[in-house]
Design brief:
By secondary structure, the protein is of the alpha/beta class. It has 26 helices and 19 strands. About 0% of the residues have low confidence.
Amino acid sequence: MNSGEMSRDVQIDEIWLNFVEGKVERNPGIREVIYQSWLRSKQLDIDPYLEKAPQVLQDSALSEEISRKNSLLAVADSIVEDLFSAISGSNFGIFIVNERGIVLKGYADSDNMALLKAHGLFPGHSWAEETMGTNSIGMCIRLKCPIQVTWAEHFCKLGHITVCIAAPILDSDGELIGVLTMTGFRENANPHTMGLVISGAKIIEREMRLRSAYEDIKLSHQYVLEMTESLPSGILVVNPQGIVTSINNIACELLKSEKKDFLNQDYTKNLGKLDCIEKTLKYGQAQEETEHHFERGNYKLHFTMSSRPIINSQSMLDGAVIILRKIEDVIRITNKMAGYKARFTFEDIIGETPNFNSVINQARSAADVSSNVLILGESGTGKEMIAQAIHNNSSRRNGPFVAINCGAVPRELIGSELFGYEEGAFTGAKRGGSPGKFELANHGTIFLDEIGDMPLDLQLVLLRVLQDRIVVRIGGYQSINVKVRLIAATNKDLKRQVELGLFREDLYYRINVITLNLPPLRARRGDIMLLADHFLRKKADKSGKQIASISPEAIDLLSKYRWPGNVRELENIIERALVFSNGQEIEAELLHLPLCEVKTYGSESSLKSEEKEIIRNTLMKNQGNISKTAKILGITRATLYRKMRHHDLS
């Protein structure tokens, strides 16, 4: 220490003494930051002649605090040890302090440590400004910046023989988490000491941030792993070279493999080169829901595969995520989206006539078994409604109900609709192919309406499917097992079709295990008004109209009509009458019935008289408006004019 430094220190010592004795009213020329700290220390009534820093934590409380700051100490330990080895023999000690100014750990030569310990620079002791007044630790905590406090700048005299340097340790958010401090005797001070402390604190900060980032990455990775394991799909991740870097348990289950079979292996080793993955890795193109069949040992694997590119922060292709889904899951979602679900139950079926109830009781019995069912009946008698009720009352009620009208699909498409097709099987075939109705109905029921219209060549294919329970898509070779119950329906006389060579006899006996003959509506006249009232309530609720009854004349007309369109026609007629009705009940003239179809139990003149009366009443209600009257009666204006002339109503 040179004479100039000695003189300045003696001067500060005198200033300090005058200050503590109350002889200083303003800053006498010391650093303003020190003077302000002195003022705070005096206001806090701190004893400037304290001989030792107070011990605020000991035993279990100190252990808990050290445990709380474990992450800081774990990082700082090795760094401070390296710093101390660099200054060993310099009579300086290095200390790690928490954000409240409590010493947690110290490093010093044995001789110095005894002296420092005597002054309270030891674990558990507080060097906060509130307890020890002006000192480097307390001021560093307050200012959150490096600071050096020398000799008499300390408020308490016990620090006047030392020089202390402290630097804050901040987290990634700039919050103080600790202090690194170095304390030694004044005569041993070095201009580089402060830089050493600041560097040490910065190294600790950087290392803690790196560790925090690493822990965040580990946690994020764990989250990703947990997320992929919780997904219902199989997940594989491959790097740009096609090496599998991750695979979840669902993928292992789908591929009948263990993780070790795939991890760090080229995906082609187990799956062969796949076009969908190669396109993603080569061109960065996402590939969606391509269908794949594999054989692994005794297992036949069938699933869809999607491939999505992984793009890194430099917009470079960094691999691909491969998503595998069980074909059953894909079909279940398809069924849900397509509405392949039976809506009707036996409780929805209306009828009281003995002949109809007999069929319903047979249908209930059919629901208890898995035998094929053939429903015979005219169009509009409710064959599909019965089929849905059977399905919903069966053990397959939770499976899909898939219906197809064999007479409504073009001949060239019926095969692909029923059995599916592979990509490229024919012109216009969808990319990736498509499952047929039998696959979509797996574990459920398939309803083949108008089966009598199925082409003969497809009847043979259907027969094989029913016998073997195996489907092969058009253009494909893979056998797909299906567990499907068949319910068929037709309005044709299949026996006659067999005799004419239009329907295969072997298929007829295959589907005709349980036969249900639905009577036409004209054969169950006791149900006509029951059904009419039901449709009226149902349609009125939907339309918001307050119409609750049908006039006696309309009831009479409905009862006499022979109903060629059966229940479906009755529902349509009630709905149409409701639309045009402006009163409180459905009247006869609003019924859209071909009058020539009405059976009367009197003479032909009675029929003509009834027709004349309906036309006259409708004209009167519409004030002679020909267009409106013709629309309500469901005939053309020309027909109405002709009938008016015939009945002498013009």
